[in-house]
Design brief:
The structure is a single chain. The protein is mostly helical and about 240 residues long. Among the domains are: about 5-100, Herpes Virus-1 (2-Layer Sandwich), CATH 3.30.40; about 105-145, no CATH class. The chain is about 50% helix and about 10% strand. The protein is built from five helices and nine strands; from the N terminus they run E-E-H-E-H-E-E-H-E-E-H-E-E-H. It has helices at about 40-50, 70-75, 95-105, 125-130, 160-244, and strands spanning about 30, 35-40, 65, 80, 90-95, 110, 120, 135-140, 145-150. The strands form four sheets. It has a three-stranded antiparallel β-sheet with strand order 2-1-3. Strands 4-5 form a two-stranded antiparallel ribbon. About 10% of the residues are buried. It comes from Vidua chalybeata (Village indigobird). One of its GO terms (molecular function) is zinc ion binding. Pfam families: zf-C3HC4_2, zf-TRAF.
């Protein structure tokens, strides 16, 4: 939907009106046939139609383009009243800057910032409302640190609140201790499994080394026996040589 034409000061060119809602263009788009529309209006129209609402020429969302620069400039220069005029705002500014003004306008209706409060109040009166709002919160004057609503002042009991807080802290601490305990047990169990696995690997390596050593001793004994045999043969050959 566009801007209500009744808000504008002076004459508004027909070319700056939306061809669908007939209000002043808001976030405008232009069809190839040069008819202009508010973005929301033309998108809503094309959900059920496939042509221009003015001349019935076929159009598609992909064919829509931004407004010509000179038309955009003319649009931005239009002067209009703040939408909070009915609440007392007398500001008149250009369409280009109206959004910025209305975001900061003292006559804008804004919600109370206190949780639970449904009051809508003018921005300029917000501070005064917050000072008396029944949902405003403050810290207990007795020093317990509890934040309470004004409506709960008569029901507030420092001892009860502190006892509740203590119970919550105790429960939280117990939970954290249990979590730490479970985590530590999990880590110890994981380390235990790792050590058992490592021990098994080392035991296998030791058995393999023992087997290798046994084979080496057997080879050494064989070599020693062969050496004795060779020495005996040499001695026998020496005796035979002497006899000859």
């Amino acid at each position: 939907m566009g801007y209500d034409i009744e808000r504008f000061v002076g004459y508004v060119n027909e070319g700056l009106l939306c061809s669908i809602c007939r209000d002043v263009l808001e976030d405008p788009l232009q069809a190839p046939c040069e008819h202009a529309f508010c973005t929301a209006c033309i998108h809503g129209w094309l959900v059920h139609h496939s042509n221009c609402p003015e001349d019935r020429q076929v159009i598609d969302v992909s064919l829509l383009r931004p407004l010509y620069r000179y038309m955009k400039n003319d649009l931005n220069r239009l002067q209009l009243h703040c939408r909070n005029r009915e609440y007392g705002c007398e500001m008149v500014c250009s369409l280009e800057s109206i959004d910025r003004h209305e975001r900061e306008c003292e006559y804008s209706q804004i919600p109370c910032s206190n949780a639970g409060c449904t009051v809508q109040i003018e921005r300029r009166n917000l501070d005064g409302h917050l000072a008396v709002c029944e949902y405003r919160s403050r810290e207990c004057p007795n020093g317990c640190g509890y934040t309470m609503l004004s409506a709960d002042d008569t029901q507030h009991n420092c001892v009860a609140e502190l006892r509740t807080e203590l119970e919550l802290l105790r429960s939280e601490m117990i939970c954290r201790v249990e979590e730490a305990k479970h985590e530590m047990e999990s880590r110890l169990d994981s380390q235990r499994r790792h050590m058992v696995q490592k021990e098994s690997i080392l035991q296998n390596e030791i058995e393999e080394l023992k087997s290798q050593m046994s084979r080496m001793m057997s080879d050494v004994r064989s070599l020693m026996a062969a050496e004795r045999q060779h020495r005996q043969e040499l001695e026998q050959a020496e005796l035979e040589k002497r006899e000859l």
